[in-house]
Amino acid sequence: MTAIDELVNTTKTYYCLDCGVCTGSCPVSRVFPDFSPRQIIERSLYELEDFSDETIWNCLTCAQCSVRCPADINFPEFIRLMRDGAHGLGFDGMPAHNGMLQTIMAIQTKDIKQNRTSWIEDGKTKETGDVFYFVGCKPYFNVIFENIDAGSIQGAQNVLKILNTCGVEPVVSNNERCCGHDALWNGNEDTFKQLARLNVEVIRASGAKQVIFSCPEGYHTFKEYYPKFLGELDFEPVHILDFLAAKLDEGVVQLEESDEKIVTYHDPCRLGRLAGVYDAPRKLLEAIPGIELKEMPRSRENGVCCGTSGWMNCSSCSKEIQMQRLKEAKETGAGTVVTACPKCQIHFRCAKQAYNLDIEITDLFDIVAERIKTG
Amino acid sequence: MGDCHYLDGNVKAEKMFQMTMELVEILGIEPARVRLEWISSAEGVRFAEVAREFTGQVKSLGPSTLKQAA
């Protein structure tokens, strides 16, 4: 049996009905017809596929195909395993930003002493405690994407402000590493495992029982893939949306009225299709007095991806996807696209700047932080 | 600045260098391992001097912890 046959067996890709819903649904295929999930699967089934196939790196792993697949084939997972095999043979995707992000991930597997908490300023944090705030890559993004005003660090400061207002002083650690999401989806399981092991050590040492995420990638990676590779975790990954919903219900915090605003919500693929969180962000937006939510035609499980993933294969096709998405947002009559993912934010702000589009792009937690007060 | 064979190449290089320094700082790598110097292709002697001096500086810092797995 070849390595690809094994992949077909582990992911049960042989259930494929050859219906083509995957390719018909794929945001990449629409702008780059050489990429076809259906053909990748067919070639794999007939032993015509090879790890050198360059198109496997174009997949956004956004799961638009797999939520619609009548045979329930997990195409993103199939692609992840294909990439892992390909990476082992020396094939890789085309890293975006000259591979800078991949280098930063690799450096974080080493014995380094990071200075990644200088953004905290007057926020309240602790060295050890029950709650750990997993900041993610924001300190790095803030430097790398300064030219597109990515606002990454402001996002971290706002999440800390929300936690503090809710009466929580979380642990924020200089020893936190990249969660490994991108290494995993770049086919680099070794780097992923090293990063994951280091993060688990840091969280264990902090004594935390709960780890709070505002980044969907970190949340999904800790929830799905950490247990898969490292066994059961002795802490609970919690998305800040769930944490916040509980605090609002208990009346610990309230959301104040502010300027009236019509917004639309862009579902990040890791939070929506992969983690199944669709209602919570909408409930939160609707709970803010003065905010009116208008849905885009492609929303919830049909929400289109922001165009790039894993800092890889960013191309004119990515820009096309982003531009179409921002146009779609504008057509709802909303002046602001709200996202809940630091990367969606970066990708859209990049497109906005490149095409000089007239639309605001804001993080959900920035909106909440502006309006939150103790109840 | 701007006096560059590659037009605005040195302006871009300086920006890239500043970003690198900020990343180096967050990653906890000694800033003395990174340096920006403006040397024209006609300044061979100066290039050799700077390279020699910088190599000495990096050597005196000893091996980087980046060589060790965490």
Topology, pairings included?
The complex is a heterodimer of chains A (375) and B (70).
Chain A: H1 3-10, H2 21-25, H3 27-31, H4 37-45, H5 64-68, H6 75-88, H7 100-107, E1 131-134, H8 138-144, H9 152-165, H10 181-185, H11 189-206, E2 210-213, H12 216-230, E3 236-239, H13 240-250, E4 253-255, E5 261-265, H14 270-274, H15 279-287, E6 291-293, H16 316-331, E7 336-339, H17 342-355, E8 360-363, H18 364-371, E9 372-374
Parallel strand pairs in A: 1-2, 2-3, 5-6, 5-7, 7-8
Antiparallel strand pairs in A: 4-9
Chain B: H1 9-27, H2 44-61
Short description:
The complex is a heterodimer of chains A (375) and B (70). Chain A has 375 residues and is α/β, with parallel strands linked by helices.
Model description:
The complex is a heterodimer of chains A (375) and B (70). Chain A is an alpha/beta fold and 375 residues long. Helix content of chain A is 47%, strand content 9%. Chain A has helices at residues 3-10, 21-25, 27-31, 37-45, 64-68, 75-88, 100-107, 138-144, 152-165, 181-185, 189-206, 216-230, 240-250, 270-274, 279-287, 316-331, 342-355, 364-371; strands at 131-134, 210-213, 236-239, 253-255, 261-265, 291-293, 336-339, 360-363, 372-374. The termini of chain A are far apart. Chain B has 70 residues and is mainly α. Chain B has one domain (9-64). Chain B is built from two helices and no strands. The interface between A and B is medium-sized, with 19 and 14 residues.
